[in-house]
Structures are given as C-alpha cells and as structure tokens.
C-alpha cells in the first residue's frame, strides 16, 4: 500500500500532460453536469447535491486512488441503492432524507477506509462476474422503470419490478401530455445521438475522436433545448415538473449529526453500497489500467474510494464511486493523470457557483431521459445465453441474481447472487469429478481410462480425485473408494493420485484414516501419489502417514511401475 | 432410495437373529428408561413424554431407516436445542410448552422427509468435522451446566455459559443439602461405574462383554437406590425435588394444533435441529455400519429420521434422532437387525404402562447426574490442540464454534461454525498456492522449483496453479502471471499447468482472455497443459481456444519439450 499514491504522477508532471488533462477535463465537465443532476434526482436528494458530490470527491480520489483515469462521482447503481436504503431508513426513524444520505456516504467512507487498512480488498473477488453483471443489468431495468414516472409526469413509487409496474399502471391515466412530449423528445434525441450521431459525423468528415467527443455533449444539448422549450412555452404552468430554484454556490464543509438509530438502520446498506461501489469501480479501473499497462492496487483503491466518500460526506454529498461511462469518456478524451479529475472538479465547482440559475426551467423529464438512456446501455441480457452455454452454474448464478434483483430489490439481489454462486461452487466440490487413470503409452503421463487409450493393471486401481479433499466431499471420497473396491475383486492396491488435491482438511484426513483402516482389513494397500508440497507438509503433522499401510510416491508413474513390479517404494512428496 | 428398506432384513429373519436382537433389546431398554426420563427433563417436557418418544419413533426408524443397529430416541444435544427453541417461541407466542415441543417434532419430520425426497442428504456434508465436534463439546458443557441446578436444588436458567454461570452464582446460597447429597452420590457412583466398574468386574472373573453390559445398568441402579433413599428418608419433605406423579399408559395418537404464529417462530430452529440431528445420527450410523460392512444411505436416512420424528409428534413426543451412546450399547449388546429396536420399543411401552408409579420418588438430582455424566464424555477439548496443529483453518473453525456456542447459544454456534469453515475455505482458494515448476531429471514429472532440483528454461515459465480457477481467484491469477512476466525479461512462453484446475468458471475465463490479450501484445505465448476432460469440454464451448495465441498440450512434459525445440504442437486435452 502507498500512503500518497499521487506522489508518483505529481513528480513527472509537465506541460504536455497538463494540456492533455485540461482538454479531457473540459469534456468530462460538460458530460458530468447533467449526469450529476440526474443521479441526484435518482438518489432522491436536491439537484445541487449531485454537483457537490462531483467536486471534492474527485480531488480526494485523485490524491489517494491508484487509477490514473478513473472518474469518481455519483453513478447510477449506487444512486439507486442510496435511494432504496435512505428511504427505508427514513421511514423507520423519521430522520431528514438529505442528512441520512450524507450519513450513508460517511458510513460508506468509514467502511471502505477500514477495509483498505485491513487489506480486505480480496472480498470484492467474491462477487463473480455473472453476479456483478446480472446485478447491474437488473438494476438498470429497475432504474429505467423508476424514472418512467418523470417522463409520464405522474407519481409512482416502488423498489421492485412488480411494485413499480403496479404503481405506474395505477397512475398512467394521469399522464401529462406536455411532460410526455418533453420526455419522449429527450429520449429519442439521446437514443439517436448514442446510436447514429457518431456515424453521421464521421460520414460528414469529422475525425473519429471528435465525433465521439461531440456525441457525449448530447445530454447537455438536450438539457439546453428543453430548458428553452420549458421557458418559451411556459411548460411549468402546463403541469411539466421542472427542477426549480437551485441554490448557487458551494456547500459549507461539515460532518452530519451522529444519529445512532439512523446508523443502526443504514449500516448494512452502507456495507453493500461500499462493496458494490468498490467492485464496479475497480473493474473499470482495471480494464482501463490494462489498456495502458498501469496497475490498480486493490487495497489502496479502497482507501481512495473511502476518501472520496469522506469528501462527499464533508461537502453534503451522497455515496460516490468510480463510474464506467464517465471514466471511459475521461480515458477516451485523453486524460493522462488524475490532474484531469482535479480540473474537472474545478469545472463542476464553477457550474455550481454560476450555472444554477439557468437550471430553474430544466424539466425533470429531461433528467429522467438522460438516466434511462444511460442505464439501458448497462443492460446486457444476452450474457444470460452466453453464460448458460458455457457453464450451467454461471448461468444459474446470473439468472438468480437478475430475477431476485428485479423481484425483491437491489440488496436482496446482490446478497442472493453471492450466496448462490458460493453455494453452487461448494455443491460441485461436494461431488467432485473422479477419474480412474492409466498410463498413456510411451509417456509417463496418466489420463482418464474413459477418454484415452491407456495402460492399466487389474491389481492396481489409480483414482484421480479432481478436487481438494475437504469437508463437503469427505464422505463422498469414502463412497468412491469403496465402490472401486467392490467392483474389482482382484484389487491389491488403491493409489490416490493427488495432483488436483490442493488441501486435505481434518474432515478428509479422518475419512482417509477410515479408508486406510478398512482397506487394511481387506488386505488392500492404500497409496498416495503426486502429493503436493503444502499438502505433504500438513500430512507430516498428522497420524495418517504412520498408519498408512502403503506408500507415498513422488509421481503416479513411479507408483504404477513399482506396485506392478512388487518393489519397495520411496516415501517422498513435493 | 428404497421405499421400504425393512424388506431387506425382514426377508432373511430367523430364530438366531431373533435371540441376538432380543438380548440386545433387554439391555437397551434398561439403559433407555433413565435416559428417556432425563432427556425429557432436559428438553423441559414432562418425564413420561421421554418414554413416549422412545416407543413409536424406534418402530418407525426400524421400518424406514437404513442402519441395522442405530438406536433412535431422545438425545442430549437435540433435547437441549429443543429446550432453547421451545422456550424462546413460547415466550413470544404464549403457546403451551409441550404442544410447542410436539409441533417442533412435526416440523422437523416434515423437513427431514422433504430433504430426503429432494435428495438433500449432501447438505450434511457442509458441517465439517471440527464444527460438529466443537458444537457437541460446547453443547455438552452447556448441558452439564444447565443440569447443575438440579444437583444443587436451586433454580437457575440461561442458554449460554455466562447466563448460566451468573444465574447459578446468584442462587448458589440457597443450595439444599439433601439434594446436593443425592446428586453428588449419583454423580460419583455413575462416574465410578463408567471408569472403574468394568475393570473391577473383569478382574473378578466376569467376561468382558458381561462386564461392559453390567456397567450400562449403572443409571438404573442409581435410580433404584435414590428412589429408595427418597422414599425411606422422606427426602421430598426435606426439599428434595422429586419427579412426582407420572401418568401411566400410552399416549393417544394425534397431531398437534397448527398454530401458524408458533410455526413461524419454530421453523428456523426446526431446520437446525433437523440438520444437526441428521449429522449426529448419520455419523453414528456410518461408524457402526463400517464395522460390519453395512452401508447407510444418506437420502433414505433422512426419510427414516423424518418418519421417526413424525411418529414422535403423533405420540405427543419431542424431536428425536439417532444417539451415539444408545446405538453403541445396542451394537455392543449384539443387535443384528432393527427388530432389536422394535423389541426395545415394546419394552419401553411396558415401562410406560406399569413402571411409572415407582418413579414417583425419583429425585430430579439423579436424572441430572445421569445427564451430566453422559454429556461430559462428549466433551473433547483435546481436539482443539490436535486440530490446530494439523491446520490453522480447522483449528479456527473448531475454536470459533466452541466459543460462539458457549457465549451465544447452540443455534448461533452451529451457524457461525458452518459460515466460518466455508469462509476460511473460500479465503484460501482466493489466494491459492502457486508453484513455478521444472522437470525432475530422468522423469517426465514436473515439480516446484523451490522444493526439487529440476530442469527449467529461461524462455519458458511453467506455472502450476494449485486451485480451480473461479471467481474468488480470477483477479489473483492475472496478478500471478503478470508478476512472472515482469520478473523474466527473456520470457517467450508462459505455460499454465492445469493438473490442479478442476473447473474454470466464467470469471476466470474472462481473466484468461485478458491475460491472453496482454501476453499477445507483449509477444509472449500463452499455453495450457494437462487440462482435464471436463474443463476442456467447457473451454471448447468458449471463445478462449480460438483466441489463444499458444497451444493446449496433453502433458507438461510435451509442452516443455516442444516449446524448447520450437516445434509445433498438438491441440489435445483429456
């Protein structure tokens, strides 16, 4: 871990790096203004809070994070989880919504920094790829659905597919035509820009980079256009919800009040938000890092994100993390160092000071459209088919995560997904693949008798167990050996080929002792081969090696040759 | 699964089997009468209920279970768990205690039969040996401590070490001298019989079998003696708690009332009791079965135990399972078939009909002493040292289970134990052992360069990853490969030796694709060797094999030889 990773890039900072960073900062700032306002709305906090969460957190991550191009701030999934957690906690405690969101950011900061100091970065690895992408796809659907009410100009609420669907259906008759007009215009414009604008611009002679940059300004254009519409046609008077007065200036710094009852309600959600935010952020960081051969340090990243959330809480913001789309824009725009993020923060600060009066007439439907178009690109249901065809377990974990997230909400979804993927793994290891092996002719290599033409001997049964021997499969191991013994009446030796055995725990050790005892009674030798170093080290501290009626062979070839010739054997292990 | 396993042994039943079973039944009946009364007291139900739970459940298991010698009925740990679950549920719902215990047996029956039909027997494997024995040891301590109040003649309550200790200390001043006298007499007598009686009898010329049988009658003798004492000296008038009037006869058959609120409270405990009871029972069944080469079928055992609990619930009993000490007595006394259990059930039924008046003066202190001596033999704290010295993980799981069971109760203990052992396993697989391997001279066998004198080549790095590649270690895999690449500037080929890789899941597949992409950019070949059949089958359904810049070799020897000579390579896998 490095205490101040920024020292690395600050040392060699020069004018050409500055120029690149400055250009990237301008592009990202333009993209971030609508995004910050929209995700604030999604999280349920006032729009200016979205801007606050895009100033100091960027600076904090630039100083303490390890990715050069990651852009930190409000993101869709974490904003949705914030809304879900805060509204539940507020319903129970009656606390102020915005204060609770700030406290959530603070709790998340404490957890992230704590996990970083304890080097708990490995915890993120327990969210498998199917679980993360299933969760993000399903969250995207929930987010899009939750924003539909702003496009229709109706009120609706709910945290699951069914609640949202029912609520929308119940109110759809009250749809405001003007709002729908603005919303559909923004949706179509944004969707068109995303799909066709870049291609059209290139055809018109733009460079690819410029086209891609201009495409990113679409949300700003849609905002400007709909503000003009709302102002020009007095849409607010016709029932179109607008953002209204947004306070200018920067937030005063300070900590939220410590409301212990609120903390009690919020901490489990804070933990989930921290882990999900971390996983999302580090996978973006790693992907971008790999493209430029820059390493991201998993434990220091926890510190970096933790300080970003601390900065957010200090400046009245809500939970933030490294976002996919914003980081990709930053990267593509040529950002070279975290200085780009610091300059972006300055840009957003200027916007918060001087731009807010302009936002008065901004229709909420436009922000909702921005969110919907952004999150729909996260939804990847095609992965379901790909995952299922590669492995039923991965497919099942993915499907389970999607279904539970849609039907029972984001927190239940991610917890179920992790539990399901761990259970499926354990289930498979509890009934491991077992191969009876023989020697591939002309080699010293042993392979499955069912897949290869191999040499075997009637008095020797060589069993390769394709799994570590530990408690979930200890009983199964006994079954496997006894079944072979029952099947082969001529049997004189059983050799357990341990090339795939990475650990033998106490439960499996007892199973081996039982097997040894029983085979001894039957006059059958029990031997081990290819026992790995760490496993052998452990066995040497146990009683098994003394009790074993047979030998431990360095290689399966040696075991087979010596047992066939009836010769004595070495007692070696790696 | 067999629907009526009793058909197997009924077919060949004859007079000599009957004689053996009959003798065993008499011995087990004599042992079971005090045990049934004592465990009923431990579970908090009236004494006659202990007898009821030892009649029909034995018959049901004899017909539907698969162990020939397992003896089913009230056992210590399950009785303690029953007391804990029922008293909590009764406190919340205000239901009748005995009715709640019957309902618990019914719920447990439904769960066991359900798990049997779904073939969920494998679930028991997730309780590792350290967790089960830690749980039983700690439960033994809790049980002994909970019975101390009866020996002292005071009132005390609690479910954890601290609660019980505080409660006992608070009331110890009220100790009744007479009760203490009876209790200590029974304790010393029972402990002496257990340790010395057998040896003494053998010295006096008894056969070993007879001596061991006579030893088992100690609880009956202590009961008879203390009943005589209590009657002769009017101990009840001197404050010694006695069992009092026990209704004679057999229970009427019937189901408990379906109290949904009570079911809501009881079901999590019923699940734990079912799993713990099943694990205890099947491990006893397997141990005894192994001695006579008889197989116990894990899924059918669930049906057998489920029907025993159903029978218990039908006859006003409480949760039962296969007990260790009673089964060993049955086995040692020469029981050959489950008919022994049916005759034992008849014996207990006769006792329930005719013996209960005799029990009026039985001091509760005697029953408590019976329990204490029985459970202290379950406590094996020496395992802690043995487990720790064999493997830190097993030691930690064992210690965690013991500590949490003692401090937070039986249910928290077993849940924590299972979670801890699974977490420790996953943690280890998330940072697997990795060996750089070379060829052992004169063989085709590859071993760790740090442990063996082996042949390597500067342009080839052969990495053996000692774990399946799956989500917890997917990121680690990338780190390992990149670290080797960074360390070896001459590197031209990386070979991943997959002998220990039993599965490659989607997350690891993506990591491999990333590695392949990055090594391709660096001009380094990525090869796989010794990929197992099932793993290869999965890879063939993926994109990786097409994208891979290197080859898949049958053996590591082949990979090393061909890459060194610069020759082309086969694309085979087992």
Overall 3D shape of chain A: elongated
What structural category do the secondary elements of chain A indicate? mainly alpha
Strands of the largest sheet of chain A, in order across it?
4-3-5-6-7-8
Q: What is the gyration radius of chain A calculated from CA atoms?
A: 30 Å
Largest sheet of chain A, in brief, is: 6 strands, mixed
**How many distinct helices of chain A?**
24
Transmembrane segments (chains A, B): 22-42, 49-66, 72-93, 100-120, 126-145, 177-197, 217-233, 270-290, 340-360, 367-384, 396-424
Main location (chains A, B): membrane
Subcellular location (chains A, B): Membrane
Protein name (chains A, B): Sulfate permease family protein
Supply the key terms.
574 residues; mainly alpha; Transcription Regulator spoIIAA; 5% strand; elongated; disordered C terminus
Topology, please?
2 copies of one chain form a homodimer.
Chain A lengths: L5 H6 L3 H29 L3 H6 L3 H9 L7 E2 L2 H18 L3 H21 L11 H24 L8 H11 L5 H27 L4 H9 L1 H15 L27 H32 L6 H17 L6 E2 L1 H9 L6 H16 L9 H13 L5 H9 L1 H17 L1 H21 L3 E6 L6 E3 L11 E6 L8 H14 L5 E5 L8 H16 L3 E5 L3 H8 L3 H4 L4 E2 L2 H10 L9
Parallel strand pairs in A: 5-6, 6-7, 7-8
Antiparallel strand pairs in A: 1-2, 3-4, 3-5
Helix pairs in contact in A: 2-5, 2-11, 2-14, 2-15, 2-16, 4-13, 4-15, 5-6, 5-12, 6-12, 6-13, 7-8, 7-16, 7-18, 7-19, 9-10, 9-11, 9-16, 12-14, 17-18, 18-19, 20-21
